[in-house]
Amino acid sequence: MEKSRVLRGCNHLLHQANISVTLKQLLVIMRLVFICALLVLSVSFGEALKCNLCVSEGDSCVPSTQTCPSYMDACGSVLYISPPLGITRSCMNMATCQSYLHMPNVAAICCSTDLCN
């Protein structure tokens, strides 16, 4: 369909609703609606959280990077203090990560910014 034909159709509908706009005004309104829709989509599809990822026995590990799925909203580092020593760094659910804070012989860090663990 031609752009001018679509605009005339929209203008016809507006006139039936007793709304008077020129084709130029209608084009401006349509552009604004389109820009607003793009802004809403860009906010709702923001980048996913990125966390360090490693699991090891002992007190150190060489991390890689992990992109978190949408249901995991935190980066966590969990150090198991009692033997055997171990460390885990990964994406986690914040509630799960915070549950480690209350466990004996475990040190945990929970955060929600990229690569904060």
Essential attributes:
27% strand; CD59; alpha+beta; 117 residues; five-stranded antiparallel beta sheet; 2 domains; 5 strands; rod-shaped
Order of strands side by side in the largest beta sheet?
A: 2-1-4-3-5
What is the count of structural domains? 2
Structural class, from secondary structure content? Answer: alpha+beta
Estimate the strand proportion.
25-35%
CATH topology of the largest domain: CD59
The biggest beta sheet is recorded as: 5 strands, antiparallel
Cα-to-Cα separation, first versus last residue: 53 Å
The residue-averaged pLDDT reads: 80
In N-to-C order, the SSE pattern is HHEEEEHE
Number of distinct beta strands: 5
What count of helical segments does DSSP give?
3
Protein name: Snake toxin/toxin-like domain-containing protein
InterPro entries: Snake_toxin-like_sf, Toxin/TOLIP
Domain Snake toxin/toxin-like: 49-117
Transmembrane segments: 21-45
Please give a structural write-up:
The protein is an alpha+beta fold and 117 residues long. The protein has two domains: 3-44; 50-111, CD59, CATH 2.10.60. It is built from three helices and five strands, in the order H-H-E-E-E-E-H-E. The chain has helices at 3-16, 23-44, 94-100, and strands at residues 50-57, 64-67, 74-80, 86-92, 106-111. A hairpin with a 5-residue loop joins strand 3 and strand 4.
